[in-house]
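Dissemination and training. As part of the outreach component of the grant, students in the summer workshop were shown how a complex can be specified as a set of sequence lines and then modelled as a single object. The example used during the hands-on session is reproduced here so that future cohorts can follow it. Participants entered these lines:
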Amino acid sequence: MHERLLAVVDDFQSMTGNDRLQMLLEYADSLPELDPKFGENPELLERVEECQAPVFIAVEGTQEKVDLHFSAPREAPTTRGFASALNQALNGLSAKEILSVSDDFPTQLGLDELISPLRVRGMRGMLARIKRKTAELAGDN
Amino acid sequence: MSDKFAGYAHPQVLVTTQWLAENRQSVKVVESNEDILLYDTGHIPGAIKLDWHTELNDPVRRDYLDGEGFAALMQRKGISRDDTVVLYGDKSNWWACYAFWVFKLFGHEDVRLLDGGRAKWIAEERELTRELPNLPAGNYPVVERDDSVIRAFRDDVLKHAGSPIVDIRSFPEYTGERLHMPDYPNEGAARAGHIPSAKNVPWGKCVQEDGTFKPVEGLREVLLNETGFNEDQKFITYCRIGERSSLTWFALKYLIGVKDVRNYDGSWTEWGNLVGVPVVKGEEAGVLA
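and obtained this result:
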């Protein structure tokens, strides 16, 4: 596993119970603001339909360095926390590194028993879309 | 009492944000959200967090807590049997209604709902805090859960031919279109569609833009007039796992005053996976034989 992913897994796995949830809240609080260009061109973003909350992603950059963008409302901190965890783990990695991330990464954070299965599925959906769009990006270049 | 509340069959189970702001010290305020981190970002001062996923359910079986588990939970939360409990939450109170329903499975007498829930409290710029309440342990006896009056199981649904079934999911979920969109995971069901004879009244039809319930005339319009159902009949409500349908269950039972309403918490995640049960796809309600 890439060291960036390991660091995120370690953040969560070093905590138990409610502290692990608080870590997710810290992640939610630290999701960077969306680049204003997407506010003006929302069609550049793709909605993550697997999430009940309105979450949008965009994948840009090159094969060598993939830039990820996330938009998730503050009213949906769990989903926002997931987006932030994926951002911290994956943003700036190469396409090859992103495509090699296990689809099981969301479960490796150890949140399955603390939050509902539907939400974990939402995070899997986010990851699957990032990988699909990364594959498209790699194919285009 | 406002005109709106006066029209409801049991107005005492609903409180306004103003009432709660004035009375919150004398009741136990409990927040239950779909997003279980939302409480931690700020909540009504003194409110206790109740996590529907990890706290109301049995950790092993797909079922609710038993009597001992519920008593222990209440004691931990600082709630006593004779307390007035006021529930509120996100998403127009989906999970607050669900928690309300679970409190009633255990016969808790005085449970109320904050009309408009979390969103209305925030829209009115009322106080929020991240500070956790420090409540002394509650005094709660072990009361066995009673599933016979307000809870429906799959066999009850199969025997419900000729009586109203209300499917409160979105229209594409009702018709069965929803599970077949390409590349999207389904919602954990093997089959798409609805229970034969069920009428589709999406939950949102019961609430207004600010998240509060519609006045009783509006509720009667969507749940009775438009469905052709009659308030003297026996109702069953369902959705995906029983949470959104708790809101409609609440509206039917306490606001319209239907005497016999049960919530089928197995809902589509059970029915859509059951071997051999009838399913209808498309817009027609169909017939439950």
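The interface with chain A takes residues 34-38, 40-41, 53-54, 90, 181, 184-185, 187-188 of chain B (CB under 8 Å). Students were then asked to discuss how this feature might be tested experimentally.
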